Amino acid sequence: MDAYDGGSNARRRPGAASEPGDAAEPRGVEGPERAEGSEEPDGPYGPGALGEPEVQGGSDATPESSDTHPSAPAAIPPAAPASGPAPLRNPDSDPEPRTGVTALSLRYQIGVVLALAVVAVAVCVHIGMVFLHVAPVNTVTKQHGRAVDDWVYPEFEQNWKLFAPNPLQQNIAVQVRARIRTADGGSRTTGWYDLSAQDGRAIDGNLLPSHTQQNELRRSWDLFVSTHDADNRPVGLRGTLSQTYLRRLVVLRLERDHVAARGDILVSVQARSRTSSVPPPKWSEEKVSVQPVYRELPWWAVTSEDTEGSAR
């Protein structure tokens, strides 16, 4: 049977007229290639093959150019941006936001700078004052020693020397005695009580001695000596304060030792120091005096304020 014979399933020659009952051939299926420049024939592949109106020339003509190849693909429109994470920021075009002090306005930045400058000046002044306090005696401390002491005492007191550490080479013992008015109207004077020796015995063998046992009496005596002249006259306001502190301390210690019997009254007290040099080692040729030196203070009247601590 010939391939081009008629029938329901027979092939049809290209360009042959369609018979009734044949299915329409889908659009877009192109037939055999045509020679360039040849006009599209009428028939099943023509413009009016499926009943579509022909496109007339003019302003409403098809946008495709007449010289465009019929098989050339149409231009693909740009794809719409897909939704997703935001693109990365370009640091060159978009600088990072300011933080910290730089985020403040100019007025507040100036305030911060001034505050830091004041703090820096105060720190430098404090360091300089403490340095002059612990440094050896020099021209500045001779002329402005009072200003340095007013700045350092009492909050920033230093009891060590930075450039010339000198360990104690003397034993200083604080002793005290009292005058007592007895219940029958008489008067008596006690012997000397060695308060430093009492503290030494309390510390000896104690693995954890208290700060009071170690330093209270010693520091009170050092404060008194440093604020009084050789005639035991107070120098400045701290001199009077140190005298009152030492007097109340020795009165408290005497009452703790029960020097006054029941009915007796503690009238006055007197303190003194006993200073003896530490003997040099055997291999040293240094010669020192072993005789103790005493410094006796005047008698101090005991007031009711001095005995308030023992009453409580």
Helix content: 25-40%
Give the radius of gyration: 57 Å
Integer average pLDDT:
76
SSE order: HHEEEHHHEEEH
Q: Give the percentage of residues in beta strands.
A: 5-15%
Shape: elongated
How far apart lie the N and C ends? Answer: 141 Å
Strand segment tally: 6
Structural class: alpha+beta
Mind summarizing the main beta sheet?
Answer: 6 strands, antiparallel
| Oligomeric state | single chain
* Poorly predicted runs: 28-35, 47-51, 57-68
Number of alpha- plus pi-helical segments: 6
Layout: helices, strands, pairs:
Layout: H1 106-134, H2 139-152, E1 170-181, E2 187-189, E3 193-194, H3 195-203, H4 211-226, H5 237-256, E4 265-277, E5 293-296, E6 300-301, H6 308-311
Antiparallel strand pairs: 1-2, 1-3, 1-4, 4-5, 4-6
Describe the protein's architecture and organization.
The protein is an alpha+beta fold and 312 residues long. It contains six helices and six strands. Strands 1, 2, 3, 4, 5 and 6 form a six-stranded antiparallel beta sheet that branches. Helix 3 (195-203) packs antiparallel against helix 4 and helix 4 runs antiparallel to helix 5. The longest helix has 29 residues, at 106-134. It is elongated and about 125 Å long. The N and C termini lie far apart (141 Å). Residues 28-35, 47-51 and 57-68 have low confidence and may be disordered.
